[in-house]
């Protein structure tokens, strides 16, 4: 089962690197975004009631995504274990984003050297801050910060739980991947201090992303064989208001020996120089290498999970659990999954 999990991860990454993100009209995450937009309204003039409405949204909408993804994989698995496995891999593909992140970051960094207005326009696809008055160095900083943070939110946060849960139950793994992506989408759309409706979504995202952010920081440090950068990053990792984003951003700042700053909010590695275009290009490469490290971590977790499942099955302890969560253990050839 560990091999099947690795094959599904390979399938998801192959689709991401070869196909890229589907257009919004065909992307389930965009569909979910429209659902979130429909709830983004003033449910009550009372701030407390508006926050309570936000609690209901944070609790309910991610479950919709989870039930949809997990239910589809379960139905497909009941018809054909191979089809169910492939569909689980497709769910993982739709919930991760690496190629688009690296391409857009590289595009923004390069544009700062020749067309800063284009860079300011394109960086809006990476960060929510007002970029209209940012200098070329500040735009590069924003792009590098986003690359580090989105490696955590857009890849590691989904990949690791999928690797752990897929050997147990593919429907469960798909459901959790969709749930995490939905939580992150909710936070990005509603989780602003000025929005009482998004308070619950922001706090839920903080809880869900706590481990992935720190694993991402480790992956960045391991990618350049510089574990000491983690200890250096501790000095400023808590500077951003988010309890999580500072870890991958600060680690990347120290690995690159550059200053990353959001004006009026935080400065990471403030004693260093602003990033150059070459620093930005190196950041893109390092984020890609950290993604590879993350896959290796996922492979170890998948192997450990599969070994645990085998041990529990041998003892007979997994049967009632598997029945409760819709466990599907397809005995399929991983090579066949990838070919599909």
TrEMBL record:
Pathway: Cofactor biosynthesis; adenosylcobalamin biosynthesis. Transmembrane segments: none annotated. It is a multi-pass membrane protein. InterPro entries: Cobalamin_biosynth_CobD/CbiB. NCBIfam families: cobal_cbiB. Keywords: Cell membrane, Cobalamin biosynthesis, Membrane, Transmembrane, Transmembrane helix. This is Probable cobalamin biosynthesis protein CobD. One of its GO terms (molecular function) is threonine-phosphate decarboxylase activity. It is found in: Cell membrane. The lineage of its organism: Archaea, Methanobacteriati, Methanobacteriota, Stenosarchaea group, Halobacteria. GO terms for cellular component: plasma membrane. GO terms for biological process: cobalamin biosynthetic process. It comes from Natrarchaeobius chitinivorans. PANTHER family: COBALAMIN BIOSYNTHESIS PROTEIN CBIB.
């Amino acid at each position: 089962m560990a091999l099947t999990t690795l094959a599904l991860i390979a399938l998801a990454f192959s689709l991401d690197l070869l196909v890229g993100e589907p257009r919004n009209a065909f992307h389930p995450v965009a569909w979910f975004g429209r659902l979130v937009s429909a709830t983004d309204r003033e449910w009550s003039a009372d701030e407390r009631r508006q926050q309570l409405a936000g609690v209901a949204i944070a609790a309910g909408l991610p479950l919709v995504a989870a039930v949809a993804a997990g239910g589809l994989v379960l139905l497909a698995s009941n018809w054909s274990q191979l089809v169910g496995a492939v569909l689980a891999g497709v769910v993982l593909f739709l919930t991760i984003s690496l190629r688009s992140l690296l391409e857009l970051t590289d595009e923004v960094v390069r544009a700062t050297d020749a067309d800063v207005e284009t860079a300011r326009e394109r960086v809006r696809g990476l960060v929510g801050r007002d970029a209209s008055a940012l200098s070329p160095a500040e735009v590069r900083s924003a792009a590098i910060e986003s690359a580090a943070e989105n490696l955590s939110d857009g890849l590691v946060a989904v990949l690791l739980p999928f690797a752990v849960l897929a050997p147990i139950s593919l429907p469960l793994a798909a459901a959790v991947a969709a749930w995490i992506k939905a939580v992150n989408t909710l936070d990005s759309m509603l989780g602003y201090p000025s929005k009482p409706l998004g308070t619950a979504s922001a706090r839920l995202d903080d809880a869900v992303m706590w481990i992935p952010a720190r694993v991402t920081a480790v992956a960045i440090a391991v990618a350049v064989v510089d574990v000491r950068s983690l200890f250096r990053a501790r000095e400023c990792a808590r500077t951003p208001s988010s309890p999580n984003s500072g870890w991958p951003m600060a680690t990347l700042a120290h690995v690159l020996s550059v200053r990353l700053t959001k004006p009026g909010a935080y400065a990471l590695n403030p004693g260093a120089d602003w990033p150059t275009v070459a620093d930005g290009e190196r950041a893109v490469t390092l984020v890609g290498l950290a993604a590879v490290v993350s896959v290796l971590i996922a492979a170890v977790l998948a192997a450990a999970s599969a070994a645990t499942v085998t041990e529990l099955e041998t003892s007979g302890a997994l049967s009632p659990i598997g029945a409760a969560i819709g466990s599907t253990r397809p005995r399929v050839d991983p090579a066949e999954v990838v070919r599909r």
